[in-house]
Write a structure and sequence with these properties.
mainly alpha; 4-stranded antiparallel beta sheet; two-stranded antiparallel sheet; 6 strands
Length: about 625
């Protein structure tokens, strides 16, 4: 591999790795989603569709970054002019730039084939995923991204533009083709599905050929007209030129200027929000004109949300600091009279504010407009929206942490996307593992006995929620602390790995602790005191037949202890408790088998009920 090939390949390693992993996992997750083999299509208490959506998003974002980075990274590092002045033919430079993403796309396709073969071998029901619509349409889309991203990146001179503009162009072209194919009937599916598929294939070939030529043509004729600033600029300046007078600092201090600077650095997020609003309301207007296309336009709305929301959240958190580090102005700003922690706090506050407006308020308003400004159950709507708000806040803070560690916007976005997947999947795995362990059963037994609690005092949701809250708070604290400590300079790779491991431990350990606590409270060690109480109750009818009846009878601890079924731990648990025993005959099939019911009331006022059937005491085991 030549030095030029290494230079072109190195920036692609992160998005290529994300796309490869997503392509390998996508067939298996898709098969398990369609045909759940166990746990009814759930993993870690969450539906597999969520994992499938995350993998699809990672695959497409990784591929879009692969196509946009080769040219966009030169604009980001201000090295594009240095490429143009090299004594090398433009065609040779073009081939070197396009070869690396092309090879990466082929590798991603092979990874998808390997994942599909694995799913076919071990999951026999995965054959429907080989349908032409499911395979060819994404292939057309990704091939169009590869061929057109060079032109759009050179036109917009940014990586983000090279990722967003090809997507918008292809979606617009697909809508136009669908309209032209079905202009007579107004119905695309299923009457014109074959014609639409052929038209989309022809349109994709024309689009790829045209924009591949336009990209090469723009690169071949491109000229860099911006002057390069260097040490000779001040020497070339006229000697007699007087400097402009310094502007007086306003009475509000430097905060207004810093606020204006931060808002201008968020211009990319505002442009992306404007693009989302135009596409959303245009689709909404076309839906009113074409009511027969309601399902198709709803799919377009969902696609816009799936693409815009993660990008908006992540970019709002990392674009400000990332641009300043790329321009080399962040170090200058640290020398200002404003302290570093105040600048860090302002950047974080503005990022969260922009995320709230552009990433939550605007999509919420758009969705509200699509529903006709009507919400049937507002309480339920706000309850369902709370996980989205939590994910948005943590996504913005995570991308802010990533840009302080990596110093690059694209790397921060891709690393944040990968971190969300790792934390999400790892957290669910810890919940699954915690549900199968009971390492805290001795501690739970001591708590139940010492504080005279029922083993069912704590529900599954309460303990799992407690572990989740502790984990999220620890994760938030570490994210903020590490981002502040390392915002002045990028850490080394060893420090980055150490900080990443700390974040994973801060989330995974509390999640496992909460799930293990739930299983420990349900373990036989904790329930042993209840079983001993039940065994003692079974012997009461033979010892005091005259006292046990329909009316509740108070039984003392000494009378229960006389049965010989209680150990010291059970007696300590029942100290001072009031035990009311009564006979209850339930209706139905067990009408001939009366049950004993004991109402146990502890001194603190807590109570619970235990039932048993005395006739089953002398039955042999296993019957």
């Amino acid at each position: 591999m030549t030095a030029r090939s290494k230079k072109e390949t190195r920036p692609l390693l992160l998005p290529w790795g994300i796309a490869m992993v997503a392509a390998l996992l996508f067939p298996t997750i898709d098969t398990l989603t369609r045909y759940p083999y166990s746990n009814n299509g759930y993993f870690g208490g969450l539906p597999l569709e969520w994992f499938g959506g995350l993998i699809r998003l990672s695959l497409f974002v990784g591929c879009m970054a692969l196509a946009a980075i080769p040219f966009g990274i030169e604009f980001q590092h201000r090295t594009f002019a240095l490429i143009l002045v090299q004594p090398v033919e433009r065609l040779r430079l073009w081939k070197a730039k396009m070869a690396s993403p092309a090879v990466a796309f082929v590798a991603v396709g092979l990874a998808y084939v390997v994942g599909e073969c694995f799913a076919c071998l071990y999951l026999p029901s995965s054959s429907p995923s080989w349908s032409a619509g499911d395979v060819c349409l994404p292939m057309f889309f990704l091939f169009g991204i590869l061929c057109s991203s060079a032109y759009w990146t050179l036109l917009s001179r940014s990586i983000i533009g090279g990722m967003v503009l090809p997507l918008a162009a292809q979606v617009g072209l697909a809508v136009l083709i669908g309209y032209l194919v079905s202009w007579r009937t107004g119905d695309v599916f299923p009457t014109a599905s074959l014609q639409l598929f052929v038209a989309l294939g022809i349109g994709a070939l024309v689009y790829c050929s045209l924009f591949a030529y336009l990209g090469w043509r723009k690169f071949a004729r491109m000229e860099c007209r911006e002057a390069l600033l260097g040490s000779s600029v001040f020497e070339a300046a006229p000697a007699g030129r007087e400097s402009a007078p310094l502007q007086p600092i306003p009475s509000s201090g430097p905060w207004r200027g810093l606020l204006r600077k931060e808002l201008r650095l968020q211009r990319t997020v505002f442009l992306l929000a404007s693009f989302f609003a135009v596409c959303w309301f245009a689709a909404l207007g076309l839906e009113r004109l074409r009511p027969a296309w309601k399902d198709q336009f709803e799919a377009v709305h969902i696609l816009l949300l799936v693409i815009y929301l993660p990008l908006g959240w992540l970019l709002a958190g990392c674009i400000s600091l990332g641009e300043e580090k790329s321009l080399g102005t962040w170090g200058w700003h640290l020398t200002l009279p404003v302290s570093a922690w105040r600048q860090w706090a302002m950047k974080l506050a503005i990022a969260l504010a922009v995320m709230s407006v552009a990433g939550l308020a605007l999509p919420g308003l758009a969705w509200f407009a699509a529903q006709g400004f009507k919400i049937d159950r507002p309480g339920r709507w706000f309850l369902e929206a709370s996980p989205v708000v939590l994910l948005a806040v943590y996504g913005a803070i995570l991308s802010f942490w990533a840009v302080t560690m990596l110093g690059n916007v694209i790397r921060a976005v891709l690393a944040s996307l990968m971190a969300v997947g790792v934390l999400f999947l790892g957290g669910m795995l810890m919940v699954e593992i915690g549900g199968r362990t009971s390492f805290q059963q001795e501690l739970c037994a001591w708590i139940v006995v010492q504080f005279q609690l029922s083993p069912w005092q704590f529900g599954v949701r309460e303990l799992t929620f407690l572990g989740s809250i502790i984990g999220l708070l620890l994760l938030l604290a570490l994210l903020l602390r590490q981002s502040y400590v390392h915002c002045r300079r990028e850490p080394s790779r060893a420090v980055l790995i150490k900080c990443s491991l700390g974040l994973m431990v801060s989330l995974f350990l509390p999640l496992w602790w909460g799930a293990d606590l739930v299983h420990s409270f349900r373990s036989p060690v904790v329930n042993a005191v209840v079983e001993q109480l039940r065994e003692a109750m079974m012997q009461l009818p033979s010892r005091m037949p005259d006292r046990i009846g329909v009316k509740a009878t108070t039984v003392s601890l000494e009378e229960l202890d006389a049965t010989g079924s209680l150990d010291s731990q059970a007696k300590r648990w029942l100290r001072g408790a009031t035990i009311a025993v009564s006979k209850w005959t339930p209706a139905g099939v067990y009408q001939s088998s009366p049950l004993l019911t004991a109402q146990v009331t502890f001194p603190g006022g807590r109570s619970f009920t235990v039932q048993c059937a005395p006739e089953w005491v002398h039955q042999p085991k296993g019957t």
